[in-house]
Design a protein that fits this description.
Elements: E1 7-10, H1 12-16, H2 20-31, H3 35-44, H4 46-53, H5 59-70, H6 76-87, H7 94-104, E2 108-113, H8 117-123, E3 138-140, H9 141-144, H10 153-160, E4 168-172, H11 175-183, E5 187-190, H12 194-205
Parallel strand pairs: 1-2, 1-4, 2-3, 4-5
Helix pairs in contact: 2-3, 2-6, 4-5, 5-6
Length: about 210
């Protein structure tokens, strides 16, 4: 194991699984609302979105308020169904295979994700979400009451689970999250694709996987 690093924490949406742009395209297929317009409508209700991720709104409140704020012309239950249909589809395997390779070498693999309690609870009920069982702890913004980019949130999340920040490697696809980690002196890799992750692990932390590049 690499010196000091005992835990490697992964984001879900942009690393282990599906990012929000995929959901935008799925909603486009079902509603004929262009994906870029879906993204704009959600971004236009950013405060509602962030309140949900901080655990201040339940999923049904989020869906209703997003629709009300941006006038989608569809029933809230239908949008909720579309999101869940998207989540129930198989997740990509590449980053998960890297995580499991690291776990087999003795590293503790964790999740640290800005997410909605309703989506995560739903994921635990479907076959596509079984990959979550490999990760412990699972740290979510709705439990912390803070997003990863909020001041000190990463440190609080790790310490809450007994993980020293100088022993963790944080992997996320978003630059603001990587900058938040840097401010808190937490080692981090910005995820682009599985190849980039394996290269960065080996080059910067002398951590090899047993997978081909």
């Amino acid at each position: 194991m690499a010196k000091n690093i005992t835990t490697i924490a992964f984001d879900i949406g942009g690393v282990l699984g599906k990012n929000y742009s995929g959901a935008h395209h799925y909603i486009e297929e079902k509603t004929c609302i262009p994906a870029n317009e879906v993204a704009l409508r959600i971004a236009g209700a950013r405060d509602i979105f962030r309140s949900t991720m901080r655990g201040r709104l339940k999923l049904e409140q989020y869906v209703n308020r997003i629709l009300y704020a941006t006038d989608w012309g569809v029933h809230p239950d239908y949008l909720d169904l579309l999101i869940k249909e998207y989540l129930a589809q198989p997740f990509p395997q590449s980053a998960l295979e890297i995580a499991l390779s690291l776990k087999s070498q003795g590293y503790r693999i964790a999740i640290f994700s800005d997410n909605n309690r309703g989506w995560i609870e739903y994921l635990h009920t479907v076959e596509a979400g079984k990959f979550l069982d490999h990760f412990d702890p699972q740290i979510y913004s709705y439990d912390l009451g803070a997003l990863k980019t909020d001041e000190g949130a990463l440190t609080r999340g790790f310490l809450k689970h007994g993980i020293a920040t100088d022993e963790v490697l944080f992997i996320d696809d978003r630059e603001p999250c990587i900058k938040a980690a840097a401010r808190q002196e937490i080692a981090a890799i910005r995820y682009v694709n599985p190849f980039n992750l394996q290269v960065a692990l080996a080059r910067d932390y002398s951590i090899e996987t047993d997978l081909p590049l």
